[in-house]
Amino acid sequence: MTDRKKGAQFQLTSRFVAILTGLLLIVNVAFVTISLYSVYYYLADQAKEIATTLEEVPQATDDWDALVDVTIAKNEEDAVRILLTDGPTYYSKDGKEIFTELAEGTALPIFKGIILMEDEIYYFQRHQQQGRTVEIAIHGNTVIEMMMRMLVISVLLNLFAVLIGSWIIYFFVGKWSKTLQQMTQEMKEIELTNNQAKLLSVPETPSEIKQAASSFNQLLRMQREAMKREGQFVTDASHELRTPLTAIRGHVQLIKRRGSAHPEVIAPSIDFIDKESKRLETMTNQLLLLGKHHATQVCKEVDFSVLVQQEVQKLQASCPQEVTFDIQENIHMYADELELQQICQNLFGNARKYSAANETIHIRLQANETIQLDVADTGEGIPDEMKGRIFERFFRVDSSRSSQVEGSGIGLAIVASIVEKYQGKLSVADNQPKGSIFTVEFPKK
């Protein structure tokens, strides 16, 4: 029972009942208040109508007994008393007894003129007319009883509405709750079985649960893809790191075995060890750098135009190729400046490594619908079947060009990781007549 009370079906239904009951209570209080004032003004109008009728009677009339009886013809329980200034007092039928009892009744402070007796309610009103005083007592029991009957009927209808409403909301929330329970059960199955193909069932309604299930499935796919990439990364990293380590150990063993007898092998082996250890150091640093892109970075407004211009100047000073550029001014981004530098340095360095000394590198930065950075070289280009994989970690195009060029195969993966962080897009296309164009697009914010 405790678990049931904690469920969405019970809690939503109880809250609905509480809200509906509160609203109906307010409505009933308002109904009673309006009804009481309506009854009050109705009784006041009845008394005023009688007073108006008597006001039209001339002072010299001798038949006051008949007149006061006529005025209460609608309700014999009403009473009228006329006090002539220079004459006797006249009462309607049973009026004397009624006014005597009224004198002993209790007047309400809220509703002026209302007098309560043991089982009776009267509205009393006094009017000063020419030569006489008119006192009127309107019997209110009938109207009050009618109002009470309407109130009882209203309360019963309200209780009926609460019961029916509670059942309806309990039924529909139960349907939604079953959907949530099914989702929870499927989550447990995924957790226990580790089924990589299993996803949550996506209901058509309600839209909130549909959106939640779709978002969870999307998150699950992303997680599985990330785990798959990480598993592949571990495999590739272990292979890539093992290769230089194996070569280094081989040359160390060579020096141990033959160094004393053949000192001429020491110098080449030491050069090879130095080269491979530097490569190993570079690869390790890049791996650490690649793992930091999801950590907290210091973002601020960066003048991307100035940053690209500075990196182009560094490239012109350090490479033999001709470097041309077309940089639009005043392009700003909210990002980590070091990460934008890494994008430029990796793309520019990639173009320098794979372009001959007599070739040209062209860099363009512009902002239209997006912020777009293009790095074009006139090297050998990338085969179409390789374009989809060059941003993977450790992937290098298997050609004579790539085998002769130093590199870890991580630079473009670093660029792809940073671009993805800023919801950007990284792509590569053929340059004409030859070469490649790497394009980075960032959304304008």
TrEMBL record:
<keyword id="KW-0418">Kinase</keyword>
<keyword id="KW-0808">Transferase</keyword>
<feature type="domain" description="Histidine kinase">
    <location>
        <begin position="236"/>
        <end position="445"/>
    </location>
</feature>
<dbReference type="InterPro" id="IPR036890">
    <property type="entry name" value="HATPase_C_sf"/>
</dbReference>
<dbReference type="InterPro" id="IPR050351">
    <property type="entry name" value="BphY/WalK/GraS-like"/>
</dbReference>
<keyword id="KW-1133">Transmembrane helix</keyword>
<keyword id="KW-0472">Membrane</keyword>
<dbReference type="InterPro" id="IPR005467">
    <property type="entry name" value="His_kinase_dom"/>
</dbReference>
<dbReference type="InterPro" id="IPR036097">
    <property type="entry name" value="HisK_dim/P_sf"/>
</dbReference>
<dbReference type="InterPro" id="IPR003661">
    <property type="entry name" value="HisK_dim/P_dom"/>
</dbReference>
<keyword id="KW-0812">Transmembrane</keyword>
<dbReference type="InterPro" id="IPR003594">
    <property type="entry name" value="HATPase_dom"/>
</dbReference>
<keyword id="KW-0597">Phosphoprotein</keyword>
<feature type="transmembrane region" description="Helical">
    <location>
        <begin position="12"/>
        <end position="37"/>
    </location>
</feature>
<keyword id="KW-0902">Two-component regulatory system</keyword>
<feature type="transmembrane region" description="Helical">
    <location>
        <begin position="150"/>
        <end position="173"/>
    </location>
</feature>
<dbReference type="InterPro" id="IPR004358">
    <property type="entry name" value="Sig_transdc_His_kin-like_C"/>
</dbReference>
<dbReference type="Pfam" id="PF02518">
    <property type="entry name" value="HATPase_c"/>
</dbReference>
<protein>
    <recommendedName>
        <fullName>histidine kinase</fullName>
        <ecNumber>2.7.13.3</ecNumber>
    </recommendedName>
</protein>
<dbReference type="Pfam" id="PF00512">
    <property type="entry name" value="HisKA"/>
</dbReference>
